[in-house]
Design brief:
Structural class: alpha+beta
Oligomer: single chain
Catalytic activity: 2 GTP = 3',3'-c-di-GMP + 2 diphosphate
Organism: Thalassomonas viridans
Shape: globular
Helix content: 40-55%
CATH architecture of the largest domain: 2-Layer Sandwich
GO molecular function, one term: diguanylate cyclase activity
CATH topology of the largest domain: Alpha-Beta Plaits
Largest sheet: 7 strands, mixed
Number of strands: 19
GO biological process, one term: negative regulation of bacterial-type flagellum-dependent cell motility
Number of helices: 16
Protein name: diguanylate cyclase
CATH superfamily of the largest domain: Reverse transcriptase/Diguanylate cyclase domain
Length: 489
């Protein structure tokens, strides 16, 4: 069942608020003094995150968050005029602008950009007409018409269910909502914030939010790479933004209650019965509170309960932190072997059921021991981190990059056939081969060898396919290194 608190939490910013204090290093303060002004290229039509009002001013959730950050840092904002989102991106790439606010690192792989931590998560929800009286998941839409909008990132996720769901594409979110309202489709998917805002703006009172799917947008700030020192500064300010202020920003632009799924008649009767029982219990508690001794005991119990709740919350936060450490490589920040195997347990059965291709890339840095012996382990670590960053930048959000151990890496590419996997591998090999590191005035270059293995129907097992990719890697090593070899099953 969807409730307002759950959905509101889904929209909150990623970093925990620690108050208004922001601790900047001397270098960061000096950088801010040298850059008192930033040029922004805005998206004029992405309500409620960023859009122009009747006076032509950029407003929205992203603008409110950016204004908070720049006020804390005392940076002046200058707008570069834009007519659409593509023009905003072009201005940033060409150096005519310094910053955009509604970027997603998963869909913007431009090597000339630097990204902040995501400041907002956007769950994708299922919209229906009011006649639907139950909560829906993606499986409930099998065999039905599902509306979506051309160009959305969620479409790549939905297209893997194209054999079960009839996808209908609209040219804009407004057009899709109006088609759903008129009965042209059974349901529609859209990010939660835009859905709530657009339904209110279009006054579509016969629509509601009836569920959500397993897909989440993440919005962040993006700047030109020359301004990358600004990113850790922005991350600090976002982390220090008070929770109350975050909630106020969301409440200013989004009203979720009007469109949430509501219980049917039977469920309403159950809720009334529960409320009645709670009311009786409350009256009984009030009677007991007349007794002074019991009141003192109740207060003591309440204090213990609050302490216990605080301890439970701290334990949950610690568990989340420990889980991240368990599944993450300390040096590169990539997924480790444990995380890869967990992901395999999800992807492999799905590939087997759907008879969809999946590819594995085994990558190994050439002569890595020689780099450590010649320049030291610090330089070796730089090579590993640089390689990890290139691998992350060269893959899609649905792919998984893992450090297998030492100088070996593994890429798992779901929904990827042999030809595309070879293209990705060759692109990575070329990027690594042309990368240079400076160390004490010396230029360091390095290469890697890659083995590619592809299965078209989920067979053989992951372990067998991994061994095949390792065999292909061995071929690359035997044939002179710095090359790609493949074996297709």
């Amino acid at each position: 069942m969807l409730f307002v608190p759950l959905l509101t939490l889904a929209l909150l910013f990623t970093a925990p608020a620690s108050g208004n204090a922001v601790s900047l290093t001397e270098d960061e303060q000096a950088w801010l003094r040298q850059h008192p002004q930033l040029r922004i290229a805005g998206d004029p039509d992405y309500a409620p995150f960023e859009f122009r009002n009747a006076r032509g001013e950029l407003i929205g959730i992203s603008q409110d968050i950016l204004s908070y950050c720049l006020n804390v840092l005392a940076i002046e904002l200058v707008e570069v005029p834009t007519h659409n989102w593509k023009q905003a991106q072009d201005h940033l790439s060409a150096g005519a602008a310094d910053l955009i606010t509604v970027a997603s690192q998963a869909t913007h792989l431009d090597k000339h950009l630097a990204f902040s931590q995501p400041y907002i998560y956007l769950p994708v929800v299922i919209l229906t007409r009011n006649q639907v009286d139950q909560q829906l998941g993606l499986k409930d839409l099998y065999g039905r018409n599902l509306l979506t909008v051309h160009g959305l990132g969620v479409n790549n996720y939905l297209e893997q269910f194209a054999d079960k769901i009839r996808l209908v594409y609209a040219h804009s979110s407004q057009a899709a909502l109006q088609q759903l309202s008129s009965g042209a489709a059974d349901a529609m998917v859209m990010n939660l914030a835009s859905a709530s805002y657009q339904m209110q703006a279009l006054k579509l009172s016969n629509l509601r939010i009836s569920g959500e799917i397993d897909y989440t947008y993440q919005l962040a700030f993006a700047v030109r790479s020359e301004l990358s020192p600004l990113i850790p500064i922005l991350n600090k300010v976002l982390a220090a933004m008070p929770t109350e202020q975050k909630q106020q920003v969301i409440a200013k632009w989004i009203n979720l209650e009007q469109y949430l799924w509501r219980p049917g008649n039977y469920q309403t009767l159950m809720i009334i019965a529960i409320i009645a029982a709670l009311g009786f219990a409350l009256m009984f508690a009030l009677y007991l509170s007349l007794n002074r001794k019991l009141t003192i005991q109740n207060k003591a119990l309440e204090q213990k309960s609050r302490l216990l709740e605080k301890e439970i919350e701290e334990r949950k936060l610690l568990e989340v932190k420990l889980k991240e450490q368990v599944f993450q490589d300390d040096l590169t920040g990539l997924a480790n072997r444990r995380k890869l195997l967990e992901r395999v347990s999800l992807e492999w059965p799905r590939s087997l059921r759907a008879s969809r291709p999946i590819s594995l890339l085994m990558l190994d840095l050439d002569h890595f021991k020689k780099i450590n012996d010649s320049f030291g382990h610090d330089v070796g670590d730089r090579v590993l981190v640089t390689t990890a960053n290139i691998l992350q930048d060269s893959t899609r959000i649905t792919d998984l990059v893992a450090r297998w151990g030492g100088e070996e890496f593994v890429l798992m590419l779901p929904e990827t056939g042999h030809d595309i996997a070879m293209e990705i591998a060759e692109r990575i090999r070329e990027k690594i081969a042309t990368t240079e590191l400076d160390h004490q005035g010396k230029t360091i270059t390095f290469t890697l060898s890659i083995g590619v293995a592809t299965t078209e129907d989920g067979e053989p097992s992951f372990t067998e396919l991994l061994n095949i990719s390792d065999m292909a890697l061995y071929q690359s090593k035997e044939q002179g290194r710095n090359r790609v070899s493949s074996i297709i099953i």
